[in-house]
What does this fold into?
Amino acid sequence: MLRLPPFRYLAPHSIEQAANMLAQEGEQAMLVAGGTDLYPNMKRRQFTPQVLIGLHGIAALKHISGSPEQGMHIGAGVTLTELSHHPVMLERYAALATAAGSVSTPQLRNMGTIGGNVLLDTRCNYYNQTEFWRHSIGYCMKKDGDVCLVAPGSPRCWAISSADTAPVLVSLDARVRLVSVRGERVIPIRELFRDDGMKPYTRADDEILSEILLPPAGDWRSVYVKVRRRGSFDFPILGVAAAIRFASDGTVADARLTLGAVASHPVEATEAVKRLLGQRLTPELISEVATLASKRSKPLDNADLTINYRKQVTPVYIGRALASFV
It folds into this structure.
């Protein structure tokens, strides 16, 4: 049986109190909300914090407010279940509701939060293993070693971003609010991510993700599709988030397309999307754009199923996502 390492648990009642605790405890502390990813990682000794600061009791993190006309505010502590069932999300931000509802199992969605999913630790077959397993083959660069076992000649870690909601929020052009004892800042969510398997987020160590800000829904429509080994529970080996706004004549006025689980950060297929602008969605155009966008996906041997399969299904699922708008 895998057991948690010893730690102290702090339970703040406000964001300000949590920020103060995080600043005081420093590098020995980590934040935890639902704990659906952190606790298993702690059992496998990927993380061994001496202090956990629990965000579960902070009511200010559990709101969904605003309107589709003015934009929505989603507290980082909102559970994935609540988000996936919210009527406004289902009607006006459909891709986000789909992505939240596709994470893992009902039990874990009841505990897991949107903030935790956005900041999900990057994953790799050589990293997400028990301490005994990792010790037996030699530790990887991401934890305790100095070599990337996926690409031994590479100077960087290639662990992948597997958060379902992350590519959706990028395609929705969302922003995030980060709070610390130094104040707060609001940044586009795409600026929260960087292409680094070891340090995939620009969030400072003393910052708390407190809120996600969605822009007005307007005429935007969105969709999310994913590929995984099993129909539930498993992390995605490909996520496709697409958002399109049509002009009155039926042509594409604007579009965004983001791929998840193909790199250490959500990958935007901006050049491929330009081919859609001013055009009607036809099977021929969808096939062309899907092929162009799939070139942004360069999987390595660090997730489920084979590299060749993952490459082959990428344009297929991009095409399915775009075809859903027709």
Q: What stands out?
A: The two ends are 50 Å apart (CA to CA). The chain has twelve helices and twelve strands. The domain at 62-119+160-323 is CATH 3.30.390.50 (Enolase-like; domain 1).
